[in-house]
Backbone:
DNA sequence: TAGATTGTTAATCGATTAACAATC
DNA sequence: TAGATTGTTAATCGATTAACAATC
């Protein structure tokens, strides 16, 4: 899909071969690099919360399951962030990676569904720690409208378009039953959201310019289980 | 960086050339293959629920973001599951992949945390659809003990070891605050759980024989956002 | 048949790994 | 210094992709 196309474009055909790994010429990271950098960021953010000041590629490797050589390689492509014999400064590495991923700022998200899952999401730090703010919660149940959910009040779906516009919302999170997901995805698309984070099991149909990410804990479990069983 | 040598080796190696891709000789799947097969399974399971009888590699590709050629390649390594001009039978592909992943049976899981997230997990089909059954829920809050959460009643932590033994539980899910996660992970390890699914942000320390998977929705969002922003 | 889609080949690209000099 | 860890090279392996004959 849209991701597939990105991959082919990533390092465009016949570019100058002397450009090391990732010079400033290539304006877009490869899918793999972007995914791994995001992963490092997660661990670094938490390590910082725990008061850790430096971290080695070996430690990062243990938490991310990414080979330590590759971590050093990924990072050294953008600068010499580490100190030999010491490791990487957690704070400064967080800023560097945020800069590389261009996600230094705050991003507003709209959440659909004020059930258990929606409340869990709105009340957690998981998104907040990475600069995502739940600025609006919607639910189709009229009884829930006005409820306080995390930092926001539950709004009526009819207000969606207005809020997306006003709050400059790019990401929509679907924490609703599978049966309702497609209908609400359509509304999110219609309102102008570009990224949909789907916590239902529905296989969503969206236009090509919209990216869907479906959460799949069971898939991860199956995968882990396979390696346990063999 | 051009490796002309690779080309010469491609067919030059002295190995039996007729062993297709993945004969029965290789007893363990590579990480990548196992991950992708799990992914296909998720989509197939949902497609089946929706009444779909056949699916093409192209359709699977759209939902999984895996290249369609690679899907055909992954599958053809284990047998000729598809029908040219038609696609794959959803039902039979589900069984085949389950067989390959050796996850055809039921697996019991223990859930820690009877808050919003715990209740959302216990009440959803996400795990159930893939053969995972929440057989026990634990919480440290005495007030919650005895509560009905999804299909199970909330138990006291002291019963953990007993239940893990009796119910043959291999997987533990942590849906608890970050501050409590390490302590409970220790208890799960002590009780004999081999796979921990961590929904907190804690960086868990566990012995090498235990696998930790930390859920990271924000990481996935950062990643998606990068490609939207660039 | 005619259209669609698999199974497979061949080529290229990116990931992985070991090893080690540089250096904090 | 001595120990640790980065930054980097070189080699191999697996993933990705286009293309197309086979065949339903």
Residues:
């Amino acid at each position: 899909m849209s991701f597939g196309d990105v991959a082919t474009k990533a390092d465009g055909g016949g570019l100058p071969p002397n450009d090391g790994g990732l010079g400033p010429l290539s304006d877009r990271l490869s899918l793999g690099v972007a995914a791994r950098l995001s992963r490092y960021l997660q661990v670094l953010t938490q390590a910082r919360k725990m008061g850790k000041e430096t971290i080695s590629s070996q430690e990062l490797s243990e938490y991310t399951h990414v080979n330590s050589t590759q971590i050093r390689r990924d990072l050294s492509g953008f600068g010499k962030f580490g100190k030999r014999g010491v490791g990487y400064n957690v704070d400064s590495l967080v800023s560097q990676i945020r800069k590389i991923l261009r996600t230094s700022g705050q991003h507003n998200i709209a959440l659909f569904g004020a059930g258990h899952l929606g409340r869990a999401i709105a009340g957690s730090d998981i998104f907040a720690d990475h600069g995502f703010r739940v600025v609006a919660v919607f639910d189709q149940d009229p009884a829930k409208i006005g409820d306080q959910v995390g930092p926001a009040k539950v709004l009526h779906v009819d207000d969606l378009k207005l809020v997306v516009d006003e709050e400059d919302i790019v990401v929509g999170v679907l924490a609703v039953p599978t049966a309702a997901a497609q209908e609400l995805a359509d509304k999110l698309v219609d309102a102008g959201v570009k990224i949909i984070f789907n916590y239902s099991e529905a296989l969503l149909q969206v236009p090509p310019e919209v990216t869907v990410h479906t959460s799949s804990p069971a898939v991860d479990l199956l995968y882990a289980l396979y390696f346990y069983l063999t």
